Amino acid sequence: MTAALLDIHNLRQSFPRADGGEHLVLDGVELALNEGQIVGLLGRTGSGKSTLLRLIAGLAQPTGGTVTYLGQTVNAPAPGIAMVFQSFALFPWLTVLENVQLGLEALGLPLPEIRKRALAAIDLIGLDGYESAYPRELSGGMRQRVGFARALVVHPNILLMDEPFSALDVLTAETLRTDFLELWGEGKLPIKGVILVTHNIEEAVLMCDRILLFSSNPGRIISDIAVDLKQPRNRLDPQFRDMVEKIYVAMTARKATPMQIGTVPTATITTVLPRVSANLMAGLVETLAAAPFNGKADLPVLADELAMESDELLPVAESLQMLRLAEIEGGDIKLTDIGRQFAEMGTDDRKRLFQRQLLAYVPLAAHVRHVLQERANHVAPKSRFLDELEDHMSTEDAEHTLRAVIAWGRFGEVFAYDDDSETFSLENPS
Amino acid sequence: MRVNVPISAAAWTRFFSRWDILAFLLILGLLVFLAEASRHLFEPLAELQRQPPSLDPRNLPEYAARTTLRMLIAMVASLLFTFTYATLAAKSRTAERLLIPLLDILQSVPILGFISVTVVFFMALAPGRVLGAELASIFAIFTSQAWNMAFSFYQSLRTIPAELEEASRNFRLSPWMRFWRLDVPFAMPQLIWNMMMSMSGSWFFVVASEAISVGNTTITLPGIGSYIALAIERRDLVAVCWAIGAMLIVIFIYDQVLFRPLVAWADRFRFEQEPGTQAPESWVFDVLRRSRLIERLIAPFAALWRQTLRPRHPEKYVPAAQAAANMQGRFAFQVGLIVVALAAVALWQTVSFAIEGITMSDVATTLVLGLATLTRVVVLIALASVIWVPIGVWVGVRPRVANLIQPLAQFLAAFPANLLFPIVVSIIVAWKLSPNIWLSPLMILGTQWYILFNVIAGAAAIPNELRAVGVNLRVRGWLWWRRIALPAVLPYYVTGAITASGGSWNASIVAEVASWGDEHLQADGLGAYIAQQTDAGDFHRIVLGIAVMSLFVVVINRLFWRPLYFYAERKFRLG
User: Fold this and answer.
1) pTM score
2) What domains are there in chain B, each with its CATH number?
3) FRET label pair with B169: which of A7, A147, A387, A392, CA 20 to 30 Å apart?
4) pLDDT under 50: residue ranges of chain A
5) CB-CB: which of A91, A132, A134 is closest to B181?
6) B85: DSSP letter
7) Are B376 and B439 in contact (CB under 8 A)?
8) A residues 246-275 near B, CB within 8 Å?
9) Do A316 and A280 contact (CB within 8 A), yes or no?
C-alpha cells in the first residue's frame, strides 16, 4: 500500500461570532488522500467543503487539527498543491500563454524550460492555437481549460478543484469532465491525486473513486462512500443510478435523525432558513401535483425533469417539508393533503394557507408577528431581530435567515417590511 | 503551434518599417525635449534674476517645455508615492488605520499651504541654485497630484477579487511579482483616470506653483505659469492669449502622446471580461507597438525586468503566514511606538507654535472667514448642480455628443483661474460690483466639470431597457427626471460633487483674490486670508488658516458628503 499523499486529522475551523461565541464551520474532519485517487467532497452550501479545500491549499489556517502533506504540516501555500477555481481566476491582462507560465515563473525556472513546459501543458489540455488570446476572447469552457493548464503545468502532486464545472453550461461541463477523466485514466496528467469539491451528485459519482458526504452547519463528514464503478462510467447504467439514489437518500435523511419526534423535523427560532422564493415553492407544488408525478416523485428524477441540480432542488423541497406542504422520505418527495389543496387554490387562498402554515411551523415568522402585535405602534426595527439571531448563528446566516423570513412573510402577508427604514410593521401600504 | 517569439528571424529581412521611422522620431523628440528642458537645473539662482522672464511669445516653447517637464517629474514622484503609500495602507491593517485618515487630511490641505510652508526648506536643499527652487515648485505640483492617485490605488487594492488573490497565493508568487502581475494591472485603469484628473488639477495651480512668493522669498521660475503671472502684472492681454494658446497645445500634446496611449494600453487591464464597448485607440500607441525597432530596444530591458520578478529562493518552503504574522506583530508594535512619539512631538510643536503667535481673536476671525467661504462653496455647488446635472443627463444619453464633450470638459478643468482675471477684474471695476459675490464664480471654474463628467458617465450607464420602459409607459417631463434620470445619476453626481466641493475650497486661495495690473480685488474669505498671510510671510497665521480650512473640509466630508454617498450607493446604484 502506498503512503497517503495527504493526511487530515481532526480538522476544525471556526469564526468568532458577534456575541463572542464561535461559529463552527468545519468539525472533526478526518481524511486521507492516497495516490491515484480522486476524492469528492460533496455537500450543500454551508457545509464548509470550500473552506476545507482552502485549508488544504494553505490559503487559510485551521482553528484546530492538522493538514499534513508528504509528512509536512501545511500552514502556507505548499509547492506541489495546485488549485483550479470555480470562476477560473485567470488574470485578464495576461494572454493564455502568460497565464499558464505564471506558476512556473514563480518557481524561478529558466525561460526556455518555462516556455517548453507551458506549451506542453497547453498542447495537452487542447488549447493549441489560443496561446496569444486574452481570457476575455475565450468561451467559459476554454477559460477553464486555461485554468487546468495553469494548475497542471507546475506538475503538482495534488490537484484541488473547487467546483470547476459549475460555472459552465451543461454540455461544456460534460466535455471538459470527459476530457479530464480520459487524460487521468491514460496517466497523462502529471498529478498523483485529486480532491474535487462539488454540490452536483451525478458529477461526484461520475468522477470520484471516493465520495465524502458533508453535513451543513457545521460541516462534518457524515458518510464515506467508495465508488467502485469502472471508468468510463455511464450515467444511464442502473448501478450508476443506484449510487445517485443512495446519495440522495443519505443527503435528505440526515436532517431527520437528530429529532426523532414524528417523522418531520421541526424548525426552531434558531434554524437557518434557506432563501427560497415562495414562487419557486408554489411552482414545485404544482409540478408535483401534476402528471406524471401525481403527488409523489423520486428526487433524482424530479431534478432531471426540472433541469435543476440537487443543490438547487433540495432547499426548495425542504422548505416545502418545513411548511408541511410535502414530506421527504428515502429520496422521494410526496405532497401532503395540505400540499394538494394548495396546488388547487387560487392566489388569495394560497396566501391565506401559506400564512397559516408559516405561523404554525416557522417559529421565527410567528415570533416577528408576535413582537409587532405587542408593540403599541406595531413597528420594530430589523436590527432587533438581527441581533437576536446573531446570538445563535453567524452574521451572514442571520442576514440570510431574516431575508428569507421577510420574503415568506410578504407572500403570506404576515407582516410588512420597509427596506428604506429597515423596519417591520403590521400594516401594508394601502 | 503559433507562438509570439519576441525576436523572429523574419524581422531582420525588413529592418525598417514606416512604424520604425515614426517611432524613431518620437523617441528622438523626447530626448531633445528632456535635454533642453533640464539644461538649466544646475545654473546658479542668480542666473534667474539676470534673465528675467519676458512676455516675448518666442520664449513660450521653452517655457512650455519646462512647465511640462516639471509636471512630468511630479507625476513620476506621485506614482512612486502612490505605489508605496497606498500599498502599505492596503497590506497592513495597522498602517491603514493611520495612513488613510492622514491621506484624507492631506487631501484637504490647500496646495498653496504646502508651498508656503516648504519653500524655505527646498531652497535650503540646494542653496543658491535653481535646483532648489525647481524642487519647491515640483513639490507644489506633486501635492496637487498625489493624493487622489494614492486613494484610487488603495481602493483598487482593497477590491481585488478574492479568487485572483487566492490564485496568486496558490501559485506562490513572490510579493514583488504579485505587485506587478496582480496589484498594479488591476488598479491601472482607475489610476490612469486619476492621473488625468491630477494633471488637470496641476494646470489649474500652474501660476501658484511657478511664481512663488512667500514673505521675502520670491521665486519666478521660467514656465507658462510665471508667464501668465507676468502678463497679468503688466496688463498684457495679448500675452494672456498667447499663454492660453500655448496651454492648449501642451495639453493637446500631453493628451495625444501620454494619456491616450496610456488609456489604450490600460484597456487590457479592464477586469470585465465581456467583449463590450469599443476599445480606446491611440496612434502613438499603435506606432510604438508596431515598431520592431522599439521592440528590439525594449527587449533587453524587458528581460532585465523579468529577472527582478524571479524569486531568489524558489525551492525554499516558507511557512509564510506564520512568519508574516510574527513580523507584522513586531512591525506593528514598532510603528505604533514611532507614531505615538511623532504625534506627541507634533502636538507639542503645534501648541507651542500656536501660543507663540496666535490669539483667540485670530482663531475667531478664521472661523468666521471659513463660514464665508463655506457659504460660497455651498451656493456655487448648488448653482453648478442646477446647471450641469440636466445638461450632463442630456449629453449622457447621447453617446455621440458625449464623445465630443468629454475632451472639451477635460481641457476646461485644466484652465487656470488666473487666465480669467483680466475679464473678471475689468467687469467688476467697470460696473462697481461687489467682489464678495462676483469673484466667487472663479472658485468653481475648474471644479464644476467634475460634476459634469460624472453625471455624463452616470447617464450613459442607464441601461437601455430602463429607458425603453420609460418610453413605453410614456413617462415624460418632470416625472421622467424624478423617477428615472435623477435617481440613476445620483451616485455618480455625489462622487462628482465631492470632488468639486473639495476642489473649490482649494481654489478659493487663488480665486478670492484677483488682480489685473495694479488693480487688486479681494473677497472676504478663508482663501483670501491664507493668500494674504502668505504674501506677508506670517507663518503662524498661514498655518492657522490652513488648519482651519482642512478642518472645514474634513468635517463637511464626514458629516455631509460621506453619508450621502453611502445612501446613494445603497439605494440607487444600478445592477
Assistant:
1) 0.80
2) 51-284 (1.10.3720.10), 335-575 (1.10.3720.10)
3) A7
4) 1, 254, 256-263, 430
5) A91
6) I
7) no
8) none
9) yes
